[in-house]
Amino acid sequence: MKFRNSLAGLALAVGALGMMSTPASALELKAADVHPEGYPNVVAMQNLGKKLEAATKGRLTLKMFPGAILGGEKEMIEQTQVGAIAILRTSLGPVGPVVPEVNVFNMPFVFRDEAHMRKVIDGEIGDELLAKITASPSKMVALGWMDGGTRSLYLKKPVRTPEDLKGQKVRMMGNPLFIDTMNAMGGNGIAMGFGELYSALQTGVVDGAENNPPTYFTQNHYSVAKYYSLTGHLIIPEIFVMSKIVWEKLSADDQALMKKLAREAQMEQRALWDKKVAESVEGLKKAGVEFIEVDKKPFYDATAAVREKYGKDYAALIKRIEAVK
Ligand code: BDP
User: Fold this and answer.
1) Is residue 138 helix, strand or coil?
2) What are the tens digits of pLDDT across the range 190-199?
3) Residue of minimum CA distance from atom 8 in ligand 1
4) 215 lines ligand 1 (CB under 6 A)
5) Using a 6 Å cutoff on CB, does residue 73 contact ligand 1?
6) Which of 148, 294, 165, 156 is nearest to 231 (CA)?
7) Taking the complete model, does pTM exceed 0.85, yes or no?
């Protein structure tokens, strides 16, 4: 008894003196993103980390691994599932093969525009989808959404109609839904990791790709494919998830704190995103990229079978998405 009391007393004294610089429960969370330092998603996540550190007095910290140093999104999802990555920011695209229900958000032209997408992810449908990911066997806890803007085509030649895509090899993210989308739009969809894309464009392994203005700009893809055809065929939200293995190590209070900070990060990224889109469009124009207005209707019509194929099991959910005004 005496011994225990003196140990407790010692622990108290050491704690009060602030000498326990690394308490046993300290945890460094490894976070990852394919985008480079300075990109809105990366900045929002780093700021979440700073707030987390402040709120827990350094007990929980976040270490960011940007620029795909831990691999492409498919590989990073796998690392998150086994707990090697604690927090991952990823497009919803490569999550589709792991949690099929999220493919509803990955379908071509499922959102009318970005404002529609934002209303959906901010509201109850967005919450429900995050909960579905968390409840699935994916071993990921979905914390929040991020903005991924609108994806349009960029090729080495102007594309105005589905006919212009004939024979063109276009890189898509790794999800059969996107290959079907590109094939339906008239081209040949090629699944390829993000990291391989620049050299594939340069060497002509592919003729083009599709993405939002910030990615097209920051990855320098415009220097090897300068015709940006504004098809707007995909408006894919992005998510950030935590490894369930790591999540379960957190106390209920820490989990609640993470959820609160996640919502703040979602809103912060959005403000940064809008700025980044404007800067990117300006930078692309300055660099001589040709922005081509296209009639979206033929692309919308051409992809009806894709929405039918991937949406047929989720008809009620799609109706609810459409009803969000
Ligand atoms: C970007 C997304 C990123 C994807 C990338 C891609 O932000 O998550 O990895 O597209 O096309 O817009 O692979």
Assistant:
1) coil
2) 999 999 999 9
3) 91
4) yes
5) yes
6) 294
7) yes
